[in-house]
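Response to reviewer comment R2.3. The reviewers asked that we include at least one raw input/output pair. We reproduce the pair for 50S ribosomal protein L9, chloroplastic here without editing.
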Amino acid sequence: MTKKISIILKQNYPQLGEKGKISKVSQGYALNYLIPKNIAEIANKNKIKHITMFNQIANKQKEKYYNEAIILKNSLDKINHICTNKKQGENNLFFGSINEKDIMHLLTKYTGKIFEKKQIKIQTIKNIGITDIQINIANSITCAIKLYILPENI
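Raw output as returned:
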């Protein structure tokens, strides 16, 4: 019967798992392959305690980030729509276009939160009217807001 020992992975390894995972493998596999190639290290009480502490901190940060994203989504849902004025030309077209950067400034003005350009999904906007905007707040949390583009009085 082969003796199994506990190891902690130092890097992602497809057969065993992701970095920081504690696994039991045969002693020969660990001592002859994983440890010399710096893929893993032998687990002891202190190292296991250290890894679990880091995992707890990471989980708390993920939970905090998720809660902040939910609060931001709720505040965006209350807004429901944002308005901007553009100088109107012919055929309901306006001069220039509206891009993600313009939307970022409008959202910051309405919510006080700073957004990144990659969070905002829009198509090219060149017409006066109502357009839908998708905002990706977190990995699985999205919000839809209507953008009202109104003609500017001359």
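The chain has two domains: 4-68, 79-152. The CA atoms of residues 63 and 69 lie 10 Å apart. Further pairs are available on request from the corresponding author.
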